[in-house]
Each structure stands twice: as structure tokens, then as C-alpha cells.
Amino acid sequence: MSAWTTDILGEPYERRIIDLGVDPDGEGTVSATLVRRSVAGAPRAAVIYVHGFTDYFFQKEFAEFFTDQQIAFYSLDLRKCGRSLRDGHTAHYVSDLAHYDAELEESLRIVQEDTGAPVYFAAHSTGGLIVPLWLDRMNRASGSKARGVAGLILNSPWFDLQGAPWMRGIGTEAVRLAARVKPKTILRLPALEAYGASLHVSRGGEWDYELAWKPLSGFPVTVGWLNAVRWGHARLHRGLDIGVPSLVLRSDRSRLLARSSEEVDTVDAVLDVRQIARWAGCLGDEVTSVPIPQARHDIFLSRKDARDHAYGVVADWLDRHPPSAG
């Protein structure tokens, strides 16, 4: 386990490497990276943010929203993602989403040791599937609230496979068969650069980030990884019990766009928001589901009016679900 050092985002951001040992998927050794932005004095709570596919933490505005409310902010770059990606790794590849339990458990331990405060989790897209599955397993084993988790905030969580209905049936079975034979086979999917191009400063967007860790067209999708996601979807659809209240944010409209247009700035161009609304109730406990008009896939990378609206919704939810309630 490493010590805290200055992060690539500069002060006051720090990072700490979580060594995870040998990769169960056979790609050498793996680690995760925990980033923190502390608050002055004792925090009233902490939050751990988990990114999605083709993503990592770079959104300082999101961190500052929490620290302004005396909530210590932490973010976890999962194994083979962002700061944790190493030579020889297939970016974001896991054969089972439960492999992430190790870094989630360790990040929770570190943050509780660091702050002594209750912990919220926040997650985006694929992270919004990974974290509820882990919380469900933890809740059934020892109770999420008993472990000091206060609540969950999801930003456009990936609750089902977007696209044509046949892809969720025949397509999924084909993926499962292929994953048994050659799990790292890359799927030939249409190039969807519109969303990434709408974000990055190099294409006139508002956000600056490392394109090696978040390429505009996304990382290649492997059948083994997608198979792991589809098993996660199936488990979610049977119903979870995460043991804590949750807030589920989504855009009010989807449109999957291959090319950049003005519309890409005001819709979810990655997931089907109807699926997010449909499956939100499968989290268990108390669920608050809120559409954010004219939001992008990442709600907190939307245009200012939309993300300000979303921040207001989160602030209100936090007021109604204070950490002492857990």
C-alpha cells in the first residue's frame, strides 16, 4: 500500500495506490487508485465516486460540490482504468464485475480510517452497475448501514443493454458463447465519437482530460467484458437490496448519435434513459429517480444549466438523507 502523494490534478488533490496483486484475468499484477480532496476540519461525511467505461476521475467541479458541503471527496480509478492502467492491460477488462469488490472494500476501509465519517457512494454509467451489485452482496453479508454506508447517488447508471431488442436476447447468448472461447475478442461496433467530441476542449467542448484514458471514440469492447456486464444486468433485474437510500439521475431523452450535432449536447447519446427509469426500482430500499432535462450521458458534464439543476437535486437529496440517518 502506498502513501498519499500529489495527484496529476495538482494540489489539493492527492492519490494513493491500492495494490491488488495478481490479476485473476491473467494480465500480470493490478492496482487501483484512490484520489482524495479533503476538507478543513472534521467532515460531516465522505463520498467515494466510481467512474464508468472509458472514463476516469478528472471532474474537479464535481469534487468541489461535495467539499463545499463539508463532505470529503474521494474517487476510485478501478483496476486497468485511468490512473490504474498499465502496459499489458486490456483497458477496463474484467471477466466478472465482482472482481471490483476488492478495491471497493479497500477504498471504503481507507476512507473510514481517514475520516471516521459515514460514506456515500456515487457512480456513473458502468460504475452505476458495479457499485449496486457490490452493495447488494455486502448488505446480504453484513448490512450496508452497519458498514457505515449512508447512501448511493447514481449518474446515468447502465441498467440494461441499449439498442435493438434482439441484442438483449440472441445477441447476449452469442456474447456468452464467444466469451467462453475467446473472451478478449473485440466486438465490431459502430464508431460513436459524437459524445466524446462534444465534451473535449480539443473539439470545442468544455472539459479537458487525458485522451489516452478517455478516448473520444471509447475503448474497444471485448466479449468477455460485455458478458460480465450482461450477467450484472441479469442480477440487477432479479432485484437487489442495497440496504441504503439511492438517488438515480438520468437525462430526460436519449438519442444514440454517431456524428456530432447540436443535439448531442442535450440528450443521453450513450444509454437509453427509458431503461434507467424502468430498472431503478430494482435497487431496493428507498429509490428517488429524477430526470434532468437536456442533460448529457454524464449529467455532471452537461451544459451549465442542466448540471446546476442536477447539483440542486443532489443537494436536496443529501439534506433529506443526512449521514446520521444511516
From TrEMBL:
Database matches in SUPFAM superfamilies: alpha/beta-Hydrolases
One Pfam family recorded for the sequence: Hydrolase_4
Gene3D superfamilies: alpha/beta hydrolase
Keyword rRNA processing: no
Keywords: Hydrolase
Record domain Serine aminopeptidase S33: where: 42-262
Taxonomic superkingdom: Bacteria
InterPro entries tied to this protein: AB_hydrolase_fold, Hydrolase_4, MAG_DAG_Lipase
Protein name (database record): Alpha/beta hydrolase
